[in-house]
Amino acid sequence: MIVNIAEAKANLSKLIQMVLDGEKVVLAKNNFPLIDLVPHQEKKEIQFGLAEGKIEFIENIMDEDEEINEMFYNSEILN
Fold it and tell me: Known SUPFAM superfamilies for this protein (predicted)?
């Protein structure tokens, strides 16, 4: 249902109940849709530390890995 702002002002309680009952209500200005009326949803808190102990971090990412160096520099293809 598309409702112009002037009509929405006069029927706000009715429109709110319609949204709560599951109906889609769009507010418009000069019949141009602007916003959807939707029921309020609680904002979920961000919970930090969910991956604690599950991820291993390298102390110095610039350190070279001997196994990788062996693959690149001591390969028979390069020799």
Answer: YefM-like (SSF143120)
